[in-house]
Amino acid sequence: MGLDIRWPIGLMFSLIGVLLTGYGVLKRSASISLDININLIWGIVLLVFGVGMLLGAMRDGKNPPAK
Amino acid sequence: MQPIQLHHIDYLILIAYVAFVIGIGWTLARYMKTSSDFLTSARSIPTWVTGLAFISANLGALELVGMAASGAKYGISTAHFYWVGAIPAMIFLAVFMMPFYYGSKARSVPEYLKMRFDERVRALNSVAFAVMTIFASGISMNALAKLLNQLLGWNYNVALWVCSGVVLLYVLKGGLTSAIYTEVLQFFMIVLGFAPVVYLGLKDVGGWHAMNHSLQTVAVNPSALYLKDAGITYAPNAWTSAWQPVLAGSANNPMGVDWFAMIFGLGFVLSFGYWCTNFLVVQRAMAAKNMTAARNTPLVAAVPKMFFPFLVIVPGMIAAALCTMPDKGYRIPPAIISQETYAQAIDAVKAANPADSVAAVKAVGDVLGKKVAADKIASLVAANAASKLTDAQIKQGIYNSIAENDYDGVILSLVKKYCPPGLLGLALTALLASFMSGMAGNVTAFNTVFTYDLYQAYFAKGKSDHHYFITGKVITVVGIVLSIGAAYFASMYNNCMDIIQLVFGFVNAPLFATFLLGMFWKRTTGTGAFLGLFGGIASSALFHALTTTGSNLDAAGHVVNGMKGGYLAVVSKFPSEMAQNFWLAAFAFIACFTLTLVISLVTKSQKTDADLKGLVYSLTPKIVDNNIPVWQKPAVVGIVLLIVCIILNFIFW
Q1: Cβ atoms within 10 A of the Cβ of B480, count?
Q2: N or C: which end of chain B has fewer CB within 10 A?
Q3: CB distance from A16 to chain B under 8 Å?
């Protein structure tokens, strides 16, 4: 309906991914849980997910599906 | 529980989420031109979106908090709510019922009932649904406000009104489409927000097998974790096997249910009653862009639904397993006690005489109003007498000795334990998201039903579409305000899960009988449906008034708590409330089915066969799925999903 939902999803998770990754890098010691830097790792996962969504939306934006 | 400290990063994530959901609403506003756009999304949404929204609309306060709670209380058997209590019904809806819902072009479930039967049935259903959905919305928001209050120390009223305000902002602008889009966003938030918690929890207990091993200890002596009263014991597999403890009888599983109640009461009546007739979820399928998309929506939803137990139930099992490991220093959160009561209890400990431990235990227990572990209180009093403990130490000692659990606090206690700042913000935002979208989903469903099935049908027929468009906006506000009222009401009841099951049972169980007969037997008449439905709801209430659980009776056989049934007389007693609910559902279904059948046979139908074309199985041309690939045919996908579901049941046998 006008707005491809992958845009807000992709943007939001990319943003949160960047925030978490940044925090994981800058505040290493605070981000450790059970000996894993979970913020860094999960931040990257979220970023990949978000970017993936955006790529999907951009690709279909150029070639919208035939009605 | 002790409040959690949030850092800037956590607030940033929260603000980002809120900004995006409001932004989605604002962006969609320009596409909202007709009442159909606003209230039903004008049948334009792609399948994967409606599919995820379908499952997300159901994923509110109930799921995350309640499933973790049940995972601790009952173990893997909780998965029955998914594998028995959802998947078969979703497949049935997709393959058999969506053709009627979507093909009839009804804008809502009550409207379908009006087309199939008459206005009386529509009125009964729409009024019942409207009330139920506002109630569900209120429960969501109440749980959210309480959570924010306990966890972050926010004022309950402020939390309630602010969160409701956020929901209002995006639903008012973007209508159903807003609710659907944010539901999909929320789905990903929940999966991505809680997967790390589950991973870390499993790592902490030493892995899946180590967890199951610990749960065997729990099953043999659940009273050590205050899960059951002393002396109760189960087979070691009671928390780790889904079927065997149930098949062994209601005395042999912590849920207290037998296999018949499980399969017929939950698996058929309650499950089909919810998934096949509840407009909250069906509305998302009705928003799909064509018939195939509509039929595939519940199937798309069934895939994540099948695997959700690993995300939402396993945390509860992890919590129970952690309790058996003393070096982890974890216990299931105790029942919530106010600060003032803690202060009084601390005084009671200080004033107690260490020589008379029985009196000391009673004194402390009376102050708290909860059961306490006698040995822990006795040693606390003794320790305090030996060397003056600080108030904080005494409080911790009291905390550890409360012998009643706050199961709803389990998921939060795990989040608090494993999430550093950052991830904490993500997990909390995911929780927040699920509560808020519970309200949004319920309000949008309420909105459509109220505007089309009550207002347009009975109060203001034949007005312009713009009139109903504005009505939709007004009712959005009304719905939210009513939900807030329901939230205050719900704040008086503690265990959301059982109450919701009870209410759904009263209204839903008979409903599915009506739909089943209506969709598959053309002879069902409007009078039969109406009186059958009415009789079904009445018999639910009657059943509840005449039965109760064994634990609800005192030594003389009198009912302790009328809310749990048996207030007219006790004709039958059940081992647990869950068993009572399942049997109530079965009873109501049979009552409604029989009444509808019998009354239909002796009354005339007001509709001709031509009227019923497209609404009843025997009068509708079969859908021919020739031009879609075999792996997209709903019947084929349905069978595959059913097989996967059965395999899952076998794995956790």
Answers
A1: 26
A2: C
A3: yes
Please state, in angstroms and rounded to a whole number, the distance separating the CA atoms of residues B87 and B25.
Answer: 31
Is the model's pLDDT at B529 over the cut of 90? yes
Between CA B539 and CA B102, with CA B607 as vertex, the angle to 5 degrees is 80
Question: How much is the mean pLDDT over chain A?
Answer: 86
* B595-618 pLDDT, tens digit each: 999 999 999 887 888 888 888 888
Whose CA is closest to B645, among B299, B396, B172, B371? B299
Model confidence pLDDT, tens digit, residues B461-502: 888 889 998 999 999 999 999 999 988 887 876 555 456 556
Q: How far apart are CA A10 and CA A52, in angstroms?
A: 7
Residue B449 above 70 pLDDT? yes
Answer whether A26 touches B (CB < 8 Å): no
pLDDT > 90 in chain B, percent: 40
Query: Among partner residues B12, B185, B188, which is closest to A19 by beta-carbon distance?
Result: B12
Residues of A in contact with B24 (CB under 8 A): 3, 8
* Backbone angles phi and psi of B372, in degrees to 5: -130, 155
Structure tokens at B383: 């320790």
Q: Which CATH number does the domain B8-240+290-323+421-494 belong to among 2.60.40.10, 3.40.50.300, 3.90.79.10, 1.20.1730.10?
A: 1.20.1730.10
Q: How far is B21 from chain A (nearest CA, A)?
A: 9
- What are the start and end residues of each CATH 1.20.1730.10 domain in chain B? 8-240+290-323+421-494
pLDDT of residue A67: 42
**B24/A33 Cβ within 8 A:** no
> Which pLDDT belongs to residue B89?
93
Report which of B1, B221, B139 is spatially closest to residue B441, judged by C-alpha positions.
Answer: B139
